[in-house]
Specification:
Structural class: alpha/beta
Helix content: 25-40%
Bound molecules: S-adenosylmethionine
Largest sheet: 8 strands, mixed
């Protein structure tokens, strides 16, 4: 277990990941009834940004131009909340982003296996309520958390993919979760490197026969299998209009973050398997 998200925090994959997360969380505000969010691989919660760093091609590129991106306002507002003096110094991870969207009636469960990341997460979340952190294997804990009593909400699955088995673990987890909580929203992030594991994951999701899609966001040409060319989300039960919003906004965001040397690409698959 060597993965530390701090090295990657705020990179272009995080911008994509957290922008989509904020859209899904905002969609949950359309009803007053309570919701529950489960974050199976929560990370340390808040990251100090130091140059040189991957964030320079991600949030670092976007930050000076943020006024020109009204479509990303909810996401950028959360980042701004952790950078009150305008200079970009810190980057909030998924638990802090989720916490910002919780109303008095909502709650979140965060699972994190690494003791140090867990301790840090507890510290940064202490200033706000309604999030429970558990030091536990997120793959195992997910099953016990479903269905949440609110029967509304979303599950973020964001493993480190340092083990070759993480794609398989994700397909299994979605299968089990889909049985126990069919109407939950699932956002399952994956890296775009080799195509084979992604194709197998897509096939496994199709077989669930749930309303599902995948969205990929690339800033580099997909011809080097050893590096992170981009990333994707499997989206199960995506909120109404979410895919339309992503189709409208992601191509220009990918183009902007790819810069002159990259190769932007956005692709959407229907995995509904009907
Ligand atoms: N979701 C976070 C975010 O968006 O800010 C980033 C999470 S990072 C990609 C993956 C995290 O999973 C790491 O902090 C790692 O320590 C943790 N981890 C690895 N294996 C795990 C497991 N089996 N259960 C729970 N957490 C795990």
């Amino acid at each position: 277990m060597n993965y530390r998200h701090a090295y990657h925090a705020g990179n272009s994959a995080d911008v994509f990941k957290h922008y989509v997360l904020t859209l899904a969380l905002a969609a949950l505000h359309k009803k007053d009834t309570p919701f529950c969010v489960v974050d199976t691989h929560a990370g340390a919660g808040l990251y100090r940004l130091k140059k040189p760093g991957e964030f320079e091609q991600g949030i670092g590129r976007l930050w000076p131009q943020r006024a020109a991106w009204p479509a990303l306002a909810d996401y950028l507002d959360v980042v701004a909340a952790f950078n009150p003096h305008a200079a970009l110094k810190s980057y909030p991870g998924s638990p802090l982003i989720i916490q910002k969207f919780l109303r008095v009636q909502d709650r979140a469960l965060c699972f994190e296996l690494h003791p140090q990341e867990c301790a840090h997460l507890n510290t940064v979340l202490a200033h706000g309520p309604r999030v429970t952190v558990t030091e536990v294997n997120g793959w195992n804990a997910l099953r016990g958390a479903l269905p949440p009593k609110e029967n509304r909400g979303l599950v973020l699955i964001d493993p480190p993919y340092e083990q070759p088995g993480d794609f398989k673990a994700l397909a299994t987890a979605l299968g089990v979760a889909g049985k126990h909580w069919r109407n939950g929203i699932y956002l399952a992030w994956y890296p775009v490197k080799q195509r084979r594991p992604i194709e197998r994951l897509h096939a496994a999701v199709r077989a669930l026969k749930l309303e599902a899609a995948a969205v990929e966001f690339l800033t580099l040409p997909a011809d080097v299998e050893q590096r992170l060319n981009g990333s994707g989300y499997v989206l199960i039960n995506p909120p109404w209009k979410l895919l339309d919003t992503l189709r409208a906004t992601l191509p220009s965001l990918a183009e902007f973050l790819a810069g002159a040397d990259g190769r932007p690409a956005v692709q959407v698959w229907d995995l509904s398997g009907a």
